[in-house]
């Protein structure tokens, strides 16, 4: 098990991969030969030879809906030192965002990735901003070298699911 997995598990956080609603995932400006599957899906994202690559310019906009409400704690974004992401904005519960309106909304958090972060180091987010997340939009604004292509080898999201209270169950207890 990698150090990043151990660190995340020790904090009680889990890889949220199992809670992604795959039919709703979208990625704008991806090279169809190097799609988001390569960076997000189990097995693909562990393969050093596979990656998500931008198409027309360096920007990528990734929308990830979840099958249940989650709390997002940290993110791992892995990429090469040259063309890996640098400026990343994260938006909780913002749907139908495009490159034309991404700057209309304040991000829930903004991170600037260093070459060291791109080796697979978890970046802790402003946890208070990610308490009831139904979807996450990741806007990769630029890359390390300022080139036209951004490559992302892995994106992993760590957090917990939000336990929902069964109100019917509470009602029955009160009746007794």
UniProtKB/TrEMBL annotation:
One of the record's GO cellular component terms: cytoplasm
Organism: Aristolochia fimbriata
Family: Belongs to the PITHD1 family.
UniProt cross-references to InterPro entries, sorted A to Z: Galactose-bd-like_sf, PITH1-like, PITH_dom, PITH_dom_sf
Domain PITH as annotated: residue spans: 5-176
Protein name: PITH domain-containing protein
SUPFAM superfamilies membership: Galactose-binding domain-like
């Amino acid at each position: 098990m990698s150090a990043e997995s151990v660190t995340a598990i020790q904090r009680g956080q889990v890889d949220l991969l199992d809670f992604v609603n795959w039919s709703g995932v979208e990625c704008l400006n991806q090279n169809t030969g190097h799609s988001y599957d390569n960076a997000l899906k189990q097995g693909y994202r562990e393969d050093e030879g596979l990656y998500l690559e931008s198409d027309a310019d360096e920007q990528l906009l990734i929308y990830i809906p979840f099958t249940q409400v989650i709390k997002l704690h940290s993110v791992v974004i892995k990429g090469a030192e040259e063309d890996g992401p640098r400026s990343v904005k994260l938006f909780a519960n913002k749907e139908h965002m495009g490159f034309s309106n991404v700057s209309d909304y304040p991000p829930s958090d903004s991170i600037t990735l260093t070459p060291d972060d791109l080796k697979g180091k978890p970046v802790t987010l402003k946890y208070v901003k990610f308490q009831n997340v139904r979807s996450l939009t990741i806007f990769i604004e630029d890359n390390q070298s300022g080139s036209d292509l951004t490559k992302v080898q892995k994106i992993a999201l760590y957090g917990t699911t939000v336990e929902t209270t069964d109100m019917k169950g509470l009602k029955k207890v009160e009746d007794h």
